[in-house]
């Protein structure tokens, strides 16, 4: 026992030293070795889970903390860690390849697939629960943590509210959606009573109030959040959107201008581009989108240049979704610089060294970023062409905006060039079909546009922009019954967005349902008064 305790103390000291070098994968490997001699030693398991989180191995950390919870079922910290992992890393969990309701404007793809996940986890006996089941599991852990303390721990209430809000955003039934938002708001207000100086709780309260179109109360909460944490970029973003909902565009632009100067963030820049479209026209918006492209290049070029997997969970061994043993810190490098750490498992993209140029610098075709020996080309999986690597999510989002702005300027050739530049990333993902549909629509090729929109919805039935564009097209060609169907589908995804309500009123009017059309149109007008320039769903935050 004494030898075991001495070994554990040495390991703890080693962890402190290596954490300063950010060599978390070495810490994780050390604790994994220690588990062989630490049967049900809780602290070893718990520290192992923490090191896995730090090294980007979220799913393995999730499994380890579940084992910790088995050892100590009433440990509040373990319950909160499990809930936090699920909410922050749910998209990284293996075998999560399904569609689910969400916002279309947030640019977050609804077909989620972590790199290298399929080959390994298809061989596992344990099946990963579905997406909504994971959120329910997070709610259960938060509820357990809440019940363990009396009065409840403020962070337990905060995470419980975040989980409920997260579930509400994926719920299409209006009554259930509203009930979840109201329940989350109650928990957040109770959390603020226990800890009035928690800026994150004030942020989430404002965020949930904004989903219910309670703009004035949301503004009060977000102003309190900014008083407590003036440099919170998420709060600055939400404050800007609330100002646009109040139709205070110059004030919103001044706010987002300062925010983008302090935080060169892609989401902030795309919101800035939307406001600039209203104030100054699409030319200025295109300049901002090119600035976002420059930021994407600066952020991800080192990853692509060094053939590093994207951030987390992108290289696996037989032990799960764990990264290569090579250190990402130059001061603790365990392997030679020549070694490649990009996995050769099915579905992994190998990227050529670097991106020398981007669109605004003489953009090189994206096909040239993929090597000829790419296993995706040699042995593609049936689903690989329908999903996008996480590193390219924000890039697709930027190009979606560019395509729309070029079309509004009647520069169809430029928008088509944008689509061609990125078509090699994932030629059959729903975003590509959506952008092709926009171009066909602008050229007057309505049959091709409808075909592309239908293909996008076949891959992802919850893509809100596609539903809106297809509804407009169906009204244009006179198919009012089908237009009404798609308008209702869009309403079930974003009930507080005025666009589907307005299109629904147009289709009803064309069918002669004048009284219902007036009521629906009045709803659209009411919602438009509090509608932000960009959906509130575009802000994704846990803690």
Automatic annotation (TrEMBL):
Residues 314-333 are annotated as: Disordered. Residues 316-333 have a biased composition (Polar residues). It comes from the Eukaryota. Residues 1-23 form the signal peptide. TPR repeats lie at residues 42-75. The keyword rRNA-binding does not apply. Keywords: Signal, TPR repeat. Involved in endocytosis. Belongs to the YPP1 family. This is Tetratricopeptide repeat protein.
């Amino acid at each position: 026992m004494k030898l075991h305790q001495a070994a554990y103390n040495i390991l703890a000291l080693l962890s402190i030293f290596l954490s300063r070098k950010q060599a978390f994968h070495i810490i994780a490997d050390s604790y994994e070795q220690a588990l062989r001699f630490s049967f049900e030693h809780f602290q070893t398991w718990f520290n192992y889970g923490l090191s896995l989180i730090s090294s980007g191995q979220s799913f393995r950390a999730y499994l380890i903390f579940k084992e910790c919870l088995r050892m100590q079922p009433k440990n509040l910290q373990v319950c909160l860690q499990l809930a936090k992992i699920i909410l922050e890393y749910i998209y990284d969990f293996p075998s999560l390849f399904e569609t689910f309701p969400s916002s279309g404007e947030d640019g977050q793809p609804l077909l989620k697939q972590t790199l290298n996940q399929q080959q390994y986890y298809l061989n596992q006996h344990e099946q990963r629960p579905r997406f909504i089941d994971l959120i329910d599991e997070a709610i259960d852990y938060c509820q357990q943590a809440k019940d363990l303390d009396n009065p409840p721990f403020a962070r337990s209430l905060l995470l419980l509210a975040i989980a409920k809000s997260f579930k509400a955003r994926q719920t299409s039934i209006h009554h259930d959606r509203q009930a979840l938002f109201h329940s989350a708001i109650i928990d957040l207000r109770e959390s603020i009573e226990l800890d009035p100086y928690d800026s994150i709780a004030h942020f989430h309260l404002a965020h949930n109030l904004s989903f219910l179109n309670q703009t004035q109360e949301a503004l009060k909460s977000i102003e309190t959040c900014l008083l407590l944490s003036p440099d919170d970029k998420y709060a600055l973003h939400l404050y800007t959107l609330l100002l646009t909902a109040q139709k205070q565009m110059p004030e919103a632009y001044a706010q987002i201008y300062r925010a983008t100067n302090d935080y060169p963030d892609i989401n902030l820049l795309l919101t800035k581009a939307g406001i600039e479209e209203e104030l100054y026209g699409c030319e200025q918006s295109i300049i901002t989108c090119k600035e976002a492209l420059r930021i994407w290049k600066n952020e991800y070029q080192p990853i692509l240049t060094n053939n590093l997997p994207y951030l987390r969970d992108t290289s696996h061994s037989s032990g799960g979704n764990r990264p290569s043993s090579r250190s990402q810190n130059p001061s603790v490098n365990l392997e030679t610089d020549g070694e490649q750490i990009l996995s050769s498992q099915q579905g992994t993209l190998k990227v050529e060294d670097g991106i020398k140029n981007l669109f605004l610098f003489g953009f090189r075709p994206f096909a040239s970023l993929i090597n000829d020996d790419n296993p995706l080309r040699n042995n593609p999986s049936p689903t690989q062409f329908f999903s996008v690597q996480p590193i390219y999510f924000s890039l697709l989002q930027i190009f979606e905006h560019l395509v729309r702005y070029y079309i509004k300027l009647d520069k169809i050739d430029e928008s088509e060039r944008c689509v061609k530049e990125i078509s090699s990333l994932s030629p059959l993902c729903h975003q590509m079909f959506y952008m092709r549909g926009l171009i066909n629509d602008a050229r007057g090729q309505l049959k091709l546009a409808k075909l592309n929109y239908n293909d996008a919805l076949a891959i992802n039935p919850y893509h809100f922009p596609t539903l809106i564009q297809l509804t407009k097209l169906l009204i244009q060609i006179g198919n009012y019954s089908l237009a009404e169907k798609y308008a209702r589908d869009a309403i079930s995804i974003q009930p507080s967005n005025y666009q589907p309500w307005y299109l629904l009123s147009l289709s009803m009017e064309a069918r002669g349902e004048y009284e219902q059309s007036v009521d629906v149109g009045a709803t659209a007008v009411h919602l438009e008064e509090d509608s932000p320039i960009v959906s509130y769903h575009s802000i994704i935050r846990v803690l």
